[in-house]
């Protein structure tokens, strides 16, 4: 989709990791289609989207701090794990999927405890 060198440049400019830069670019393309591509519209879109992404990161970090998770792999894939849980998958199946898709070894008991903490608030 985008050359690696351009993504690296964007990462230096925005200060966001590669995955979040891809989200940023998708949101920006939607903004451009909706609001046009004038200079002021682009600048407003860029600043608005960057603020939204940084706010989402803060909320996610705060949410994870409340649950007291120390497992970094679990934190990395927490959104995906919650998504699979909402689709009706159990902890064992999610554990197997994480290994199949990402080669991430997360025990089913860790996933179960994580989901229990997230659900209880």
Helix content: over 70%
Q: Ranges with pLDDT <50 over ≥5 residues?
A: none
> What is the number of helical segments per DSSP (H or I, 4+ residues)?
7
Distance between the termini: 38 Å
Order of helices and strands: HHHHHHH
The radius of gyration is: 18 Å
Largest pleated sheet: none
Beta-strand percentage? Answer: under 5%
E-strand count: 0
Mean pLDDT across the residues is 83
Written account of the structure:
It is a single chain. By secondary structure, the protein is mainly α. It has two domains: 4-66, no CATH class; 72-120. The protein has helices at residues 4-14, 18-35, 39-67, 72-76, 78-86, 91-102, 108-120. Helix 2 (18-35) packs across helix 3 (39-67) and helix 6 (91-102) packs across helix 7. It starts with a helix and ends with a helix.
What would the keywords be for this entry?
121 residues, mainly alpha, 7 helices, single chain
List the helices and strands and how they pair.
Layout lengths: L3 H11 L3 H18 L3 H29 L4 H5 L1 H9 L4 H12 L5 H13 L1
Helix pairs in contact: 2-3, 6-7
